[in-house]
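hi support,

uploading two proteins for the ticket. first:
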Amino acid sequence: MRTHKVRSFYIEQAIAGRLSAKALRQLIGRQGFERKEVANAQPSSRAELQTRIQTIYRAAAERMARRELPSAHDV
């Protein structure tokens, strides 16, 4: 296991779910801890999701605005 946090997660899952060695190996193979972390990182509300999307689009628009566009006679 990579970290103490990851190891603790799998130990807790094994105890709580009374997992067999095979079931625990399958959970580790499916990257249960990593999947849980990704799910927890999802926006908690629609407003938060909208804010994140707006931030991404604003940053992209700013990057595009800084680029110099060729003039008509340069083409």
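and the second one:
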Amino acid sequence: MSGLPGPGPQKPNTTPYVVLAVVASLLLGVAMLGVIGVVTWRSLSDDPSLTPEPAPTPTTLSAPAEPSPTTGVGDPRLRRNDQANYAAWVSPTGNISCVIDHAEAWCWAEQHTWSIPAQDCDADWGDSVVLWEGGANYGCRGDPTCISAIPGQPDPCGLGEVRDGLWWARPSDPVAFSQGQLGNKALPYGNSIQIRDLRCDSRKTGMHCTHLLTGRGFMISRDKLVLR
């Protein structure tokens, strides 16, 4: 008895191989994408034209510096010489004449409307004022100064001692007739003469002299004489 025929040859199962091939293809694709990304990143980073510029640093604006207060140093209106002992000048009108003699400042008014108390003077009194460290007081007309405001007269009293009272003068300064003499150097209005602690200011209101340490001083003009 013949039996039934046995089963024919079976078809091999290829499913695992297909799965492995698909997985390998996916892994290869991921690897290739990684390589392309690295190459692209390196190419971009190596190209200087594609390098982003750094962000600008914010600028801090500082407030403008305050101007320094005026000190008077270098002021052409101040004629100062702390090494000098003498100075002589007149007002632009010639009516007021002044000198600085060491530690004293004297001024005279040739014409004036004011009067002062009688002074213990050897000569006439009543037209001058003197300032020193101790204060200001009336002076005597006969007090000699022997300091001239006229160029070329360094020894007006003939004492054989040269006293330079015109170190402050400039060629452009005016000259005036004063006390019967021509050619006196005048201190222009708005200008000052200073020797150490004594300073005199020429103003249209009169001649103002001050001792800078004590604040004492005077103002003399045709119509007014004030001690302070």
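thanks. also noticed: The first strand starts at residue 78 and ends at 80.
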